[in-house]
Design a protein that fits this description.
Helix content: 25-40%
CATH topology: TIM Barrel
CATH superfamily: NADP-dependent oxidoreductase domain
Number of domains: 1
Shape: globular
CATH architecture: Alpha-Beta Barrel
Radius of gyration: 19 Å
Length: 332
């Protein structure tokens, strides 16, 4: 397993992390023996980052991860979880964050978590369930810092979803240690400039901002919620098809575009689209660790095999760029 230094934290994280999300579903709705077997396999392979959230199965993911880690007792495991402040709690953000973390620690059976990520979308002015830049910097960050001083979290994290300009401003503030960033074969805009008529949210080379601020990057939506399998079929325990999560506003459109990347496979750059997608995410030097959703132990094994092959060669990246030109001008 390859390891990379995670931003300014000094931590060395495995390039493949263990995602405990609801889209894949293994750690939310999976069989307990499969959960334990898959985590044990991950630990044996060198995986040391485990990512969960209270929103995944209303705490089920945290409970299941806590149960397995308590039994296996792996040395050096790094655990990240998240808080999403409900809109009704925006008047008492600090209290809501503290209560959420206390619940997470109880379910995980831990005294502290290594990374505590804000899970709300961030926009310039807020509204609805989103937090404004000012709310994040003036209310969320001080609450997180107090929890760090109390020894309940080690590092401050954010989920880089929302308005691109707002995300740039928050990262530029230099207060977060970790950012979860969308990066996949359908939407590589965190890492490269896209044409103005490309059908996806443009994250404006977000990796330039994380690098300048010393922020570690957790790659999310690497498989675009499953669309980059190229198949509409979903495992019985997987969550509903999420949208928008890749480049298009609809999951079916993401699948259609994913299938148009099949020349990568036909020309021998990878054996499957999911392998190509996993290796693509590892190809950018700004990436610290990536999360791949899974429903079965076999899907973890597939992700591990892909990660062990390493980054895609430059010829594959060039071919991918050429294929994506076919998306220009299409409706998102």
């Amino acid at each position: 397993m390859q390891f990379r230094v995670f931003g300014r934290t000094g931590m060395r994280l495995s390039v493949l992390g263990f995602g405990c999300g609801a889209v894949g579903g293994l750690m939310v709705r999976g069989d307990p023996s499969d959960q334990e077997r898959t985590i044990a396999r991950a630990i044996a392979a060198g995986v040391n980052y485990f990512d969960t959230a209270v929103q995944y199965g209303d705490g089920a993911s945290e409970e299941n991860l806590g149960r397995v880690l308590r039994k296996l007792k792996p040395a050096g495991a790094v655990v990240g979880t998240k808080v999403r402040v409900p809109a009704g709690e925006f008047g008492r953000i600090a209290d809501a964050i503290t209560m959420s973390l206390e619940g997470s620690l109880a379910r995980l059976m831990l005294d502290r978590v290594d990374i505590f990520h804000l899970h709300n979308l961030i926009t310039e002015t807020g509204g609805g369930s989103t937090l404004s830049v000012r709310q994040v910097l003036d209310d969320v960050v001080p609450a997180f810092e107090r929890l760090r001083q109390q020894g309940k979290i080690r590092f401050l994290g954010m989920t880089a979803l929302g308005d691109t300009a707002a995300l740039h401003r928050v990262i530029d503030a230099g207060v977060f240690d970790s950012a979860q960033v969308v990066y996949n074969m359908l939407n590589p805009s965190a890492g490269e400039e896209l044409p103005h008529n490309y059908p996806a949210q443009d994250y404006g080379r977000l990796f330039d901002f994380t690098k300048a601020a010393g922020v570690g990057v957790v790659g999310i939506r690497v498989l675009a919620g499953g669309a980059l399998s190229g198949s509409a079929e979903r495992h019985p325990i997987a969550g509903p098809a999420p949208e928008p999560i890749g480049s298009a506003m609809s999951y079916d459109a993401d699948i259609d575009r994913a299938r148009r990347l099949m020349p990568l496979i036909q020309e021998g750059f990878a054996t499957t689209l999911t392998e190509a997608a996993t290796r693509f995410a590892l190809s950018h030097p700004a990436m610290g660790t990536i999360l791949v959703g899974m429903a079965t132990p076999q899907q973890f094994d597939d992700a591990l095999a892909a990660a062990e092959k390493g980054a895609l060669p430059q010829a594959a990246l060039d071919r991918l760029s050429a294929l994506r030109k076919g998306f220009l001008g299409e409706a998102r």
